[in-house]
Amino acid sequence: MDINDTYKTINTSGNEVLFKDRNSKFFGYTFPIISEEDAKQILERLKKQHHSARHWCYAWQIGTENPRYRSNDDGEPSNSAGQPIYGQIQSFEVTNILIVVVRYFGGVKLGVGGLINAYRTAAQLALEASNIIEKTININYVIIFEYKDMNKVMRIIKENKLKINKQELELNCKIYISVRKKISDKIKDIFSPLYEIEIKRIEG
């Protein structure tokens, strides 16, 4: 079975984009995030930056295999802002991302259809102005062993080109590694039968 272990995201904030409709201005932004707290902090910052705007509508998605998302209309008619923005996250198949569209009201009501189009277009333009990259889904393990087994452990790490995140090399040693999902079971199976060497999956 071929495991899909890649996902698309952005590694830096995208350039500000502007969409105008009947004097209303819609500024679109994209940000890489890994937690809801990241999204809250970015929104607070944008509200200070655009303190005279009328609405700060957004959608975010976090996670790869069981992603969580949220969308917010921020006072616009129900589902006229947050959902169209989230629709673009789905359309571009990106995750670990926050999209915010800031609206300055231009004095003319756009109607629900006009709002949906404006927020969707601003989100689309913001994504098109972003650097979308592909990353691998990695599983994190900790390998626990005695110092005397160091050479054995390091040889396996080197042979399989594994990424070391952190090392604690004392009498009892711990090495934290990231393994691409599609080979994670294979790597675990290499370490598991080795006497006095323990491998455990860790979250995060």
Task: Set down the secondary structure blueprint.
Elements: E1 6-10, E2 17-21, E3 24-32, H1 36-49, E4 55-62, E5 68-72, H2 82-92, E6 97-104, H3 111-128, E7 132-136, E8 138-146, H4 150-159, E9 163-168, E10 172-180, H5 181-191, E11 198-202
Organism: Aquimarina algiphila
Pfam families: Impact_N (PF01205)
InterPro entries: Impact, Impact_N, Impact_N_sf, Ribosomal_Su5_D2-typ_SF
Write a brief caption for the model.
With 204 residues, the protein is α+β, with helices and mostly antiparallel strands. The chain contains five helices and eleven strands; from the N terminus they run βββαββαβαββαββαβ. Strands 2-3-6-4-5 form a five-stranded antiparallel beta sheet, sandwiched between helices. A four-stranded antiparallel beta sheet has the order 9-10-8-11. A two-stranded antiparallel ribbon has the order 1-7.
